[in-house]
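User:
Can I borrow your eye for a moment on a structure tokenisation matter? Would you put together a sequence-and-structure record for a protein of your own picking? Please set it down just below, with no commentary around it:
AI:
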Amino acid sequence: MLAASERLAPIIGPTPLLRSRALDARVGGRIFLKAECLQYTGSFKFRGAYNRLVQLDEQERAAGVVAFSSGNHAQGVAAAAALLGMKSVIVMPRDAPAAKIDATRGYGAEVVLYDRWTESREGISAAIAAERGAVLVPPFDDPRIIAGQGTTGLELARQAERFGEELDAAYVPASGGGLIAGVALALAEDSPGTAVYVAEPAGFDDYGRSLEAGHRVENATGISSICDALLSPTPGEITFEVNSRLLAGGVTVSDDEVRRAVAYAARTLKLVVEPGGAVALAALLAGKIDARGKAVALVLSGGNIDPALLADCIGAYPEP
């Protein structure tokens, strides 16, 4: 993970760890917001993508890369590939936010759209990679991806220390679990007293249920959520092996609670946060996190939201 941090250092700086007096007063605790919504490409995903791609050899770089994603990993891989002079093909669902599809193309990627309900993104991506001889870059189940995402946790621990704080807990959004696995590994080393919890949308709380079951479980089919970045059907194999050992539990929020959090972030925190990036904040605002008298970190994992949806959230919840 330290090696990943060194690879990323010439490319990106640390994202800020922010405080809000209004938020502290509201929940009675000391809240620290890790603003990955301000990261290059608008989410933490660039960290893992760049750490993976920069380690490809010359022959692999010449062949290019293929990835599948609803949007944030797509942009991370596309941007990393562009910086490294590589071709990229990204398989994305047709119902992904238009802003994410447009941004992925804007980084120079070839976008292949699919139906998330009837087609297999893994199958489509594997076929393209085989046909072109390209390298397949998974969104989370890869040690190099996890190490890159884990640099978020390294920064978090160091920044909290500069605030003079020992974090009691950290809440991290999860889909496949690459970010939270990396953060949990980093905090276990640099801030071992910090309990790490997963935050998920209702209906896609496969991590929380898997932790309770002691093995990976799947979400029901045919359901959806406003949190387009967190719709993975089940935890990753590698990530769950890590998270099953290190996570303290999980919290689940409704789409309405997420909308309120998106609006709160914009109105009170002055941050643009996408639904999937706001689930930890949503849990705090909904009273599902006991922060009274504690130092609690929330990872705001992404900010790639369609302007119309952002306006709808703000309009639906005009009061903080």
The chain has two domains: 2-44+142-316, 45-136. The longest strand covers residues 195-201. The chain has a mean pLDDT of 96.
